[in-house]
Write a structure and sequence with these properties.
This protein is mainly β. Helix content is about 10%, strand content about 50%. Strands 2, 4, 5, 7, 8 and 9 form a 6-stranded mixed β-sheet that branches. The protein has a 4-stranded antiparallel β-sheet with strand order 13-12-15-16, with no helix packed on it. A 3-stranded antiparallel β-sheet has the order 1-3-6, with no helix packed on it.
Length: about 220
């Protein structure tokens, strides 16, 4: 009887160890709390803590806080990120779910809620009937892959600030912050290292502000 108990104990331990070796999965992005716009390109990424008999990864999107789910993609096990175009909807309860499909059991991770809104970031501009003391002429190329140039004209000697922001409101680059003479300026932005998606170039001269959309491709 003791021998039987011993073998049963060993058998149960082996089962538990086998199950503990299955991959645990962790969703890295989105992290929850972000604000996206329809058509924006974002990177969904995740990581494995362990790997064991994984078949594939399945990605799902929910617009109602997890009540219902729509499949985004089914990916090979060597993929740990996916480029996703935000759908043309509005919600305060967007979620992403990643499932590691294993032979015996699945592991799941779900993001906290994020927001999708068609309302663009609005920059407050002082109400004035006077014309702005500058003009953004263009940014080219647009869309772009790594390098784009922002061109603006300045009719008079002024202090100019040119910055780039992502849609979460975080500044990702300061391109100009100095006093410039009147003239036309072409300022390049090397976006290597920044994720694909929509950015805003913001030019500030005194109390006047103007923005341009910059679309970075993958």
């Amino acid at each position: 009887m003791d021998s039987l108990r011993h073998y049963l104990t060993i058998f149960l331990i082996s089962i538990l160890c086998s199950h503990s070796s299955f991959a645990h999965i962790k969703l890295l992005d989105p992290q929850g709390g972000e604000s996206f716009v329809p058509g924006e390109v974002i990177i969904i990424s995740w990581e494995e803590e362990q790997t064991h008999m994984a078949i594939d990864f399945d990605l799902y999107f929910s617009s109602d806080g997890g009540e219902t789910w729509e499949e985004i993609a089914s990916l090979n096990v060597d993929r740990l990120e996916y480029t996703w175009t935000v759908p043309d909807i509005e919600t305060e309860q967007g979620k992403i779910r990643v499932i590691q499909d294993n032979e015996d059991m699945d592991y799941i991770d779900i993001s906290p809620n994020f927001r999708i809104s068609k309302t663009e970031i609005v920059t407050a501009i002082e109400d004035s009937r006077d014309p702005a003391p500058f003009e953004i002429l263009s940014n080219y190329p647009n869309p772009f892959q790594s390098l784009t140039t922002i061109e603006f004209t300045l009719p008079q000697y002024s202090h100019v600030s040119l910055e780039v922001y992502n849609l979460q409101g975080a500044k990702v680059a300061t391109l100009t912050d100095e006093v410039l003479s009147a003239g036309t300026y072409a300022t390049p932005w090397n976006a290597t290292g920044n994720r694909p998606g929509l950015y805003l170039a913001l030019v500030r001269v005194g109390t006047f502000i103007e923005t341009r959309k910059l679309i970075k491709l993958e």
